[in-house]
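Case study 2.
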Amino acid sequence: MRAEYKVLRDNIRNNLLNGIFWSIGFNFVTPFIGVLASRLGATNSDYAMLSSVPALLTILLTLPAAMVITRFRRQKRIVGGLILLCRFFYFLLIFVPYLTASPITALILLVGLYNAFNSVIAVAWQSMIGELIPAAYRNRVLAKRNIWTGLCGMIIAFVAGWSIDRFPYPYGYQLAFSIGFAAAVVETWYFMKLRIPSEEPEATVGPKKHRPEAGKERDERPQSDAAAVHWLEKYQLNHGRAYYLFSASAIIFIFSWQAVWPVYTKIKVDTLQATNTMISIDTIVGAIGMLIGFQLWARFADRKGTGWALFGSAFTLAVTPYFWLYIPGMSWAYLYDFIGGIATAGFQQAVFNRLLEIVASRGRQRAIAIYTTLTQVSAIFAPIVGMQLYSGVSYEVFMSILGTARVTGSLCFLAILSPALVKWAAGRRTETVPGSVGAADEGMDNGAGTGERSGTDGGSSVIDTDGAAGGDMGSSPARNAVKRDRGHTL
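Prediction:
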């Protein structure tokens, strides 16, 4: 037992340091992508493409890559290599200002590749967390990680923004992006120090916990009922009604959430003429809101359940577009992003925990990959639809429409907590490993969950769906997925 606890302590420490260096690299780069795009002459369509192209590449890559990774028992080295490759796109950004042929296209492509690989990493990491950190510790461990990544993000974002403005263009960006890549190398090193129980010799961590494979559940349904979902089992898609109800609700909300992201960026950079330093301050304010939000929503989830925390945070996010009807200057944007940071912290944390609750431990990685793919479908079209709507109606009408759509989406999370749907969702269930997170029994229950993730909605980052000031690996609307990964708080 002592050896197992030592491994757990080491994993908690290395996971924390991994998150800190992730935050350093992330905040040297992503908050300033929108400003760089403006310097490169981005149009309305380009701002939309900065969100849509990453989503498209994420869809094309995430599920196939996850299916390949799950074929290997030792996955840590594969994921570590993907982290290093993904962060290498930080370094490649330093060459974009020198391109003479469509530099904005190169920027969009690099941002898209980063997000696509980041989503694959997020899926693998989220699956590993269920094995690395027992459920009894997970809420505190992930909350502590979020707090430290948020604090580091605030400091780094301010230093980076101030420094970029002190150097002539494009040297400030190149210096920041280079430092971001250097931090990513350290991030990868700490990830490789994590000890995955299913990949360790039995003598070092006790009885080996083999990583469950998708499609190995023992079916308890009647034969006729099992035949009705034969095609789901054939393609290993039978994750239960609760999972698909949750995914459908998330898609509806996330579509309306993401539709306004490119407009926030355009307003700050083009209308309010925000500098890199202003964007840094905005990022810091959003991060402070998230630090407060992690604690508030974690306590709320412990008392009321993850399902109610998810609805409450989503509804808070839903009303933020109404605030933006009055935006005379960046000072008001700071206030709105502070409120958005509080709400986003709860949403990112609750949506990730809820997913772990609902999904059985067996087949978890594939289920997370499917969820990420489904939510990224909306991320392709939402920014384009949002920017087209913004171009066709007045600003006030646009924000009112998107606010109403978000409220409708948040109510979907409330609807799936109704007793009738809870009972219906529990109608078909598969056996899970005893004590595993995500047993079908608790899939649609209101029980308390665990914790994780970050970002700010009107935030300054357009590279990741998780936000400029905190978060975790990957986009997943989960952050990143989550998105993680896993960048907006409003």
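The chain has one domain: 2-198+237-485.
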